[in-house]
Amino acid sequence: MKNIIRGKVHSFETFGATDGPGIRFVIFMQGCPFKCKYCHNRDTWDLTGGTEYSVEEIINKALRCKPYIDASENGGITVSGGEPLLQSKFVTELFKEAHRFGMSTCLDTSGLVAIDENIKELLLVTDLVLLDIKHIDDKKCRELTGVSNKNELNFAKYLSENNVNMWIRQVLVPGYTDDEKDLKKTKKFIDTLNNVKKVEVLPYHDLGKIKWENLEKEYPLKNTKAPTFDKIKLANEILKI
Length: 241
Hints:
The protein is an alpha/beta fold. 35% of the residues lie in helices and 22% in strands. It has a single domain (6-239), classed as Aldolase class I (TIM Barrel), CATH 3.20.20.70. It is built from nine helices and eight strands. The protein has an eight-stranded mixed β-sheet.
């Protein structure tokens, strides 16, 4: 009997307009080992949670949305999380099937997982990576996420060296990622990369706070306000390509 690989999924979004080009069918994978203070999907962290799905079950869901995906420019499937690299074998099979049905594939990741052969195989069937650079400064990255930025910077370099298209994302968190010197260092790093098609500045918001509260967890940034218009404008001016 054929072994059917299954993945742990937190939720789906059937009309995603912010996670890649065009209209996307978005799959949020369950499980994340990182501790980002601004995380708006706190309920995805639990590695034992989620609902198991087969590739076929997810593709069937996506196919019901295919008419409006096809009607948009470069629409397709996006896998987010959580951290989808933790389930790289499953996502690889999902992306292969998506391609079989003519849907583009997009991987939304932090890149904080060390690259192995499974991840390399996944990237061969990935049309676009949305790479969230947590922080260009290693010490500040550890403070913000609980882990070093070494893997994510190496991940970005690997994408560049292997001609994988990417969008760079920078969440702009007041007091954490909005320092002008750090933004300029980030820009300098981005300039060393090939195949960066777009840089997105994502202003911090606290819409995920309720998820922390529902889990009876203290929200780390409860006193942090959204960035000002001027701060957002400055970040966009510095990081633009």
